[in-house]
Amino acid sequence: MDCKKYETEILDLIDAPSGPNGAPLADHAAARHIAGCPECLTELNGMRATFAAMSDWTAPEISPWFDGKLAARLREAQQAQPEGFFARLRSRFLFTSNLQLRPIMAGAMAIMLAVGGGGYASFVHLHPSVQASATVQDLQLLDTDATALQQIDQLVDDNSTDDGNDSAS
Ligand SMILES: [Zn+2]
């Protein structure tokens, strides 16, 4: 069977014109195969249903307390951060020559700016009734990535060393 061969083309046919049973009307090899192959046709219609369900899906309402709690956490985190930490991290990010690290730094900055150094973890633990969103779960995964955090710490340390050298020379 040619099913394997046309597997990747099924995606392209999701929005293409189709007959009453969902068979693609286009006139090329992939469309002809799928129109005449019950398995591929089932696959195509299944994908259509999945995409339709996804576009109908709306995010669930979050707890009415979420915004207030998050704002409080952000204030706490801002007060807890040493002066100039973000400024130093930001300049390191903007002027670093290590292009590979840029996305990591950008992500790390976004996380730290958003949650203030792990405050979200205690937030989630304090409020187990609040369903952790996928984003929060991602953040928790990142939080446990000690290596990445260590690298960022080293960068910040490097930065303060650079500053020292600059002012000395
Ligand atoms: Zn097939």
UniProtKB/TrEMBL annotation:
InterPro entries named among the record's database cross-references: Anti_sigma_zinc_sf
Source organism superkingdom: Bacteria
Protein name, as recorded: Transmembrane anti-sigma factor
